[in-house]
Design a protein that fits this description.
The protein is α+β, with helices and mostly antiparallel strands and 98 residues long. Helix content is 32%, strand content 27%. The protein has one domain: Alpha-Beta Plaits (2-Layer Sandwich), CATH 3.30.70. The chain has three helices and four strands. The relative contact order is 0.24.
Length: 98
């Protein structure tokens, strides 16, 4: 049975430049940068848990991480201004590569 995916907003505050670059580079593999330290990712429950574990291993003790899950209804209400792409609606894939 396939797991459903949800949108997640991931924000971070990293105090060391080397860790900051590692975290940003790692998140690029999971989602799209929305602002300097904010990414959006569409992941399963298992995927977000894995990502959180990986990020916590990359981050230091005084760094901050915020993960906000968005249901489909919440994601459809997001408003934007500027050059941020408006692609929050669920894609309808007929298959998924595992």
């Amino acid at each position: 049975m396939a797991e459903g995916k949800l949108w997640y907003l991931i924000a971070y505050d990293i105090r060391d430049q080397a860790r900051l670059r590692r975290v940003a580079k790692h998140l690029k593999g999971y989602g799209v940068r929305m602002q300097y330290s904010i990414f959006r990712c569409r992941l399963t429950d298992r995927g977000i848990e894995r990502l959180k574990w990986e990020l916590l291993n990359l981050m230091g003790g005084n760094d901050d991480l915020l993960v906000v899950g968005l249901c489909e209804k919440c994601a459809s209400r997001i408003s934007k201004k500027g050059s941020i792409k408006d692609e929050w609606l669920a894609e309808t894939a007929s298959y998924e590569i595992v």
